[in-house]
Amino acid sequence: MAGRNGCGSWIGASPTEALLAQLRASQREIRYLVGTPRGLLSKYEQALLDRPWQKVNDAVEVKLLPQDGEVLVLAKSDGRQAKEQAIRRRKLARLLRKLRAMRQRPPSRDQLLLRLGAAKTEAGRAFQFVDVQLPKPDEAVTRQTFRFRLDKQKLQQAELRDGHYLLRTNLNAEDPEQLWKLYMQLTQIEAAFRCLKTDLKIRPIHHQLEQRVDAHILVAFLSYCLMVTLKKRLEPHGPGLTPKAALEKLATIQMIDVCIPTTQGCWLVLPRYTEPSLDQHLLLKKLNLELPQQPPPRIETAEAKQSWQGLQPLKL
């Protein structure tokens, strides 16, 4: 994900060296602030150790290192550190439980390899912190031939880097707080695109006429504005409560028509919405929303009976 702003600046995530070379060689004066792979942190780790931390806000500190016409920005976030460690520990705990289950009831070697492959996919990068000893092709799967252990030293080294990420820029780096605000724009842009693509499902667009495509995008944009409004109203009450979660919680409140035939050939129609649960009632209260009174019943004439065909009468 990357983007330009109106000032000829470029903000992106982990671009290639070739792309950065193009930006520097451009005839236009293009300024950039980009993320870098974590592997680059090892290269400059010693030089960064000697630099002082500068406080951006209560949760973020940065170190600045001028390097080859650029400035490397090492950022440290306590909140991100806790989040990364919690995710990794959760994945490791799940992985170790699966490995212990495989040792307690050893499968065949082929089944073991399949289960390990699935466990590795689910664990992702957390799998690298577990050393696994597999049986040889001619060996049976036993507790002696199939072993595993947690590499605690490697895990500790990774945890020391949690919450740290390296940026690089050719912008004026005298104000770390301004650099941080610029980089935060990237996360906001990514969140907006993710919301449009996943929550609002702006794609696929099946329209072919230009005005209909424009209308489709306009409706999606207005929907996104409503999502942002809902997010802002939820933030004071629950930082972890997302608009998507709130809408899913309220989605079970539905409007239904209970249709009862009468002996005169008419229909007694009772419009009713489902009563909100305790969680839904609390959520509505926090959002200052109030459900209307249940609508009154109405009588549909015999001519309207055709519209109710296919419905099963309610047996009282």
Quickly count the domains.
Answer: 4
Low-pLDDT windows of residues: 1-7
Measured as a percent range, the helix fraction is 40-55%
Main sheet: strands, sense, barrel = 7 strands, mixed
Ends distance: 59 Å
For the secondary structure, the number of strands is: 12
Radius of gyration: 29 Å
What is the tally of helical segments?
10
Strand order of the largest sheet: 1-2-3-9-6-5-4
Would you tell me the overall average pLDDT? 82
SS content category: alpha+beta
Shape: extended
Q: What percent strand? A: 15-25%
Order of helices and strands: EEHEHHEEEHHEEHEHHHEEHE
Overview of this protein structure:
With 316 residues, this protein is of the alpha+beta class. The protein has four domains: 2-77 and 163-180, no CATH class; 80-159, no CATH class; 200-248; 254-308, no CATH class. It has helices spanning 17-25, 39-43, 45-49, 78-104, 109-123, 152-161, 176-199, 210-234, 243-250, 278-286; strands spanning 2-4, 9-12, 31-35, 54-55, 60-67, 70-77, 130-133, 147-150, 164-169, 255-261, 267-273, 298-300. A seven-stranded mixed sheet has the order 1-2-3-9-6-5-4. The model is unreliable at 1-7 (pLDDT under 50).
